[in-house]
DNA sequence: TGGGGATTT
C-alpha cells in the first residue's frame, strides 16, 4: 500500500500473531471467522464462550419511570430472559446455601446476572420477611439503573417492592423489600441504626473494588453479625451477608468472615482473544497508534477502545491519529476519533454513545472511566496500554500530607476488566501493549482505598459512633502513621483534643457531608458573617468534577472567556464569582418570565453562560444540590446560611483559612512558597498543668512537639514542604506574602491547587487552641 | 506551566 511509508510499516507490527490479514481491505462483516479465536484463550486469560449472546442489563438503559402495565407478552419475555441467565440454573442452590449460611461469598463473572437475580431469588425464597434486602453499589448510576431493571422484572413500580437510595435521590417506600443503595448511603444509615435492624440481608456488590466505604461497611457487618446473630445475646432478628465480587480475592473475603462458603457462578461474556507484545514497549502512545492502524487496516469492522492514563496522552494520541488518518487511501473507512475522560464537557462525552456512521470506524481514547463507570456500545477491539494514573495520599508527619498522581502499571483485575470491554456484544479482541510476563508480574488487585487516602473524615465519623479505627476489625488496617497524621489534622482544626477525644466542635463538623476542613470553614463562617459565601465555595470544592475544564489547544480562548470571573485574591473567590454569575443568569430569566417556558429558557441561558465562560455546568448543578443539602445541615447546627458579607473578601478568606490551617504557605526570598504546617503557633490549654509555664520544648500527647519562641509562644517543630502554585491556578506566577490552598498534588513536582492569597496575619490567629471554642 | 475515577443523614 502506498501509505506504508508514512503509516507504521508492516515490519514493525507489534502483533505478528494476530488474526490473518486480508490482502484486500474490504470491511465485510466477518464476525467470528476464525473459529480458533473463539475457543482458544491465546496466551492470556479468556472469557468463557457464550452459548446464547445476550448482554446483561446495561447501566445506561433508560429506567421506566412509571408502573408499566406490561402486556402479557412483554412480561413473559422478561421472565424468559431471567430464566436464560447463566445464574438461573443455580437458583435453588443459591437460595439453599444463602439460607443455610450466615455469610456467603459469591464470585460471579461479568454477565452472570448475579446483581439483578440474587436479590430476587432471596425475595422469592422468603428471606425478606423480617427485613429488607439491601444491595450496595459503589456508584450511583449502578444503584438507580439496577433498581429500575429489577422492578421491571418484578412487575412492580420503581419505589414499590423494589427501590433505591442514593445521595439526592431516593425511591423507596414502606412496601420496599429490595433496596439498591450506594455503599456510602448504607454507611450513613449505620450512624442512626448501628445494627441495620431494618435489613434481613445485606448484599455487598463489587466488593473487590475495596472502596473506603465498602471496607468500613464490611467491618461493621462483621460486628453486626456478632451482635445480631451471636450466641445467647441476640439483638433483633438475624442478619445474612452476601459478599459479591469479581474473580479476585474470594478467599480473602471468605477468611475475613470466618471461612465463609464460596459459591461460583459462570458468566456470559463473549470470548475475547488476547494478544500480548513479545517485547516491552517504551512508548505506549506510539505503540497504541501503530496497533490501531494495524487493526484498522487488517481487521473487520468494529470500534476500537484505547485505554490511556490521562488527558495529556489522550490529546497527544488524538493528534497523531488524526494526522495519519488523513493519509489513508480514500476508499478506507473514515476514522472517527472520540476522546473520553471525566473532565470533558458533557456534550462531548455524549459522542461516544452515538452510533458509528456506516463506512467509518470509531476509535475511543479513554481513561479508566471506560473501565467501570461507563459502557460504550459497539466496541470490538480493545488496546490496553497497561497504564493508569493513580492518586495516593501520603500522610505527612504534621497532619498535612499530600497526594501523588502518578502513572503506574495497572493490576491483573484491571487488565481483565479492560479486555472484557471488547466482549460486550460479540467476540472481541484485546491487544495488550505489554508482555505476558509483565501481565504475570502485575499485582492481583488495586490496593484498598483505605490504605491510599486521607483518613481524617473516616476517623471523625467513626468517633461519632464511638468506634476507634485502630480497634475496628478491618480487612486491611491503615498504618499508624496515616492514622496519627489524620488525628493531627483533626486536632489542628479543633475536632479532637490533645487526648484524642472528640470535641463538641468535632461533633458539629461530622454532621456535615463534607471533609472536616471544609466543614470547619462553614462553622467559622458563622461568626465571620459569610456563611452564604462559604457554602457557595465549599459546595463546588465538594463536587466530584472540576469546575474549570481546559482543553490544551484553546488556552487563550478559555482565558478570555473567564477573564471577568477571575478574582485578584485567587481561586476561591474566583469560584464564588462563577457560582454567583451562573445563579444570576437563572434568577434573571425566571423572574423575567415566570410563566410557561421560563424554566426551559432559564436552563438554556445558563447552559449558554457556562459555555461562554468555559465552565463545567455539571459541576455547578451538582454543587447546587450539595449546597441545598448543606443548608439543611447548617439549620440543624444552628447556622444561618442566609448571612452574607456582600462583597467583602476578608471574612471569606479568613473562614477558609480556619479550615485550611494546615494548608498554608509563606513566600521565601527566592520566590518559592514554603508550607507553614509544622510551624503553627500553639498555646498550652488552660486545663494543662503546663499552662503558663515557660519551658524550652513541649510534647503534647504524641500529637506534636513544639519549641518556645522569643515571645513566649510555642511553635511546632515538624517539617515544611516547598510547594509550587499549580499552573492552572489564577495565582500561578504571582508573588504574595502568604497563601492557603485546597490540596497538594505531586505529579512532577509538588503543586498547590486551589490557591488564594491571604494576609499573613491570619495565620497567627489560627493556632490549634484558638479555634476550639465550641 | 498542567488536571485517573468514584462517593456522603
UniProtKB/TrEMBL annotation:
Residues 95-266 form the Helicase ATP-binding domain. Keywords: ATP-binding, Helicase, Hydrolase, Nucleotide-binding. It catalyses: ATP + H2O = ADP + phosphate + H(+). It comes from Mycena chlorophos (Agaric fungus). SMART domains: DEXDc, HA2, HELICc. Residues 1-14 have a biased composition (Polar residues). This is RNA helicase. Residues 1-77 are annotated as: Disordered. Its EC number is 3.6.4.13. Residues 291-466 form the Helicase C-terminal domain. The lineage of its organism: Eukaryota, Fungi, Dikarya, Basidiomycota, Agaricomycotina. InterPro entries: AAA_22 (IPR049945), DEAD-box_helicase_OB_fold (IPR011709), DNA/RNA_helicase_DEAH_CS (IPR002464), HA2_WH (IPR048333), Helicase-assoc_dom (IPR007502), Helicase_ATP-bd (IPR014001), Helicase_C-like (IPR001650), P-loop_NTPase (IPR027417). It is an enzyme of class 3 (hydrolase).
